[in-house]
Design brief:
Oligomer: single chain
Number of helices: 12
Mean pLDDT: 89
Strand order of the largest sheet: 2-1-3-4-5-11
Strand content: 15-25%
Helix content: 40-55%
Number of strands: 12
Low-confidence stretches: none
Order of helices and strands: HHHHEHEHEHEEHEHEHEHEEHEE
Largest sheet: 6 strands, parallel
């Protein structure tokens, strides 16, 4: 019998059934050549011990390399945006017989590296990475060893890998263009500057201002990384002189912070946020957003990954998905 805390092995089954290890292997792998008597004892011993076949080890032996597992490293599994992406990847992986293992980096470079290193040590066949660091050069060895890698939401600088991103700058330009069309010229921006996506959205904001001959005033820019910081940043912009008449926020969490500040202080300031979120259409006023499609990001990235796993050796591809400006009640005209 196996000791406490140890899973039963084929050796335990062989000892209980009184047969060789090879006989156990043949029976549990449904191979021919074993007499009914010994085969019955093997199955009875496996059932009595609660033996479970190690599918990962079996796959590695069968194919010589495949673990039938892919890894996904994202920012935060608790964020509904990333949850939608995970579900889409699972829907591509499951019919192929692959298990998805996902983890959160929390935009911490050390945590990100630890997660990626751990997944690679488990011999995943492919990696989907939402990079928080700009330096993931250590993945070069994994690429050389044949691990398929696809960057999601942001490219991986310096690595020759496929990527699937949204048109962040285009989406931001569309939002600011819309606010200018409503008569606004004092348009505040609340965003995170730490990632490729946030930098692209700020770039789109600035391009739109330039296109309309509006000065890029640094006093109208605020950096925030979470809801409380966005709420405080919005209050500062509302207290500026002259005050802002419109706000553009860089992601759904920052939009929530802005909404809280506006609800407490002002109801005449227009607001557009990047990323849609639950109940945005039911608030009063409902919130205009630049919507991405996290499911499409996940599907496209997973399809690219499996193409590489299955032997596609073509040139690197970058897929850019379009965004959609959804106009709702918070698209208030300038006074």
């Amino acid at each position: 019998m196996p000791g406490p805390g140890r899973r039963p092995t084929m050796r335990d089954v062989a000892a209980r059934a009184g047969v060789s290890l090879k006989t156990v292997s043949r029976v549990l792998n449904d191979e021919p050549g074993v007499l009914p008597g010994p085969a019955g004892r093997v199955r009875a011993a496996a059932a009595a011990l609660g033996y479970q076949r190690n599918e990962s080890a079996a796959a590695l032996r069968r194919t010589g390399q495949s673990s039938r597992t892919i890894g996904l490293v994202i920012e935060d599994v608790g964020n509904p945006f990333w949850a939608g992406l995970i579900k889409a990847v699972e829907q591509i992986a499951r019919p192929r017989g692959y298990l998805l293992v996902a983890g959160s980096s929390d935009q911490d470079h050390d945590v990100e590296r630890e997660l990626i290193t751990s997944l690679c040590a488990r011999r995943v066949d492919g990696l989907l990475v939402v990079p928080s660091s700009r330096d993931l050069g250590y993945l070069s060895d994994e690429l050389a060893h044949g691990t398929a890698i696809v960057a999601v939401d942001r490219p991986l600088p310096g690595l020759d890998v496929d990527s699937v991103v949204s048109g962040n700058a285009d989406g931001a330009r569309a939002a600011v263009d819309h606010l200018v069309e409503l008569g606004h010229r004092r348009i505040g921006y609340v965003g995170d500057t730490a990632t490729y996506t946030s930098a692209e959205r700020l770039r789109g904001y600035r391009q739109a201002l330039a296109a309309h001959d509006i000065a890029d005033d640094p006093q109208l820019l605020r950096v925030a990384h979470d809801v409380p910081a966005a709420q405080a940043a919005t209050r500062e912009l509302l207290d500026s002189t002259p005050a802002v008449t419109a706000l553009f926020t860089g992601n759904n969490l920052l939009t929530r912070g802005a909404i809280r500040a506006l609800a407490q202080r002002r109801h005449d300031v227009a607001l557009i946020g990047f990323d849609d979120f639950a109940l945005a259409d039911l608030l009063e006023p409902s919130v205009s957003v630049v919507a991405q499609d996290p499911a499409a990001l996940g599907r496209q990235a997973a399809e690219l990954l499996f193409a590489r796993i299955e032997g596609d050796a073509g040139p690197r591809r970058q897929v850019v998905l379009s965004t959609e400006l959804i106009v709702r009640g918070s698209s208030l005209p300038a006074a």
